[in-house]
Amino acid sequence: GVQSIYWVVTFACHRRCRHCYDDRFRPYVRGALDAVLAQGERAIPRILANLPDDMRWRDAGGRWHPTQLVLAGGELLIDGVRQRLFHPLLAGIADRWGTARPRISVQTTGDILTDDLLADMLARGVDTVAVASIDDHHAGHAGQAKFRLMDRLRAMMTHHGMVEITPGDPRPVPRATPTFLFFGAQPDLWIGEIWPRGRAWLNGLSTADYTTNFCARWSGGKGFLDIGRAGSEVAIEPDGSLYPCCLKTAAPLGNLTEERLLDILADLRDEAALQSINRGDPEGMGLASGWSRDDFRARAATADPLGRAFANPCIGCDRYFAERLGPVLAERRRQRLARRGPPDLAVERPVPIA
Question: Does position 10 have pLDDT exceeding 80, yes or no?
Answer without folding.
Answer: yes
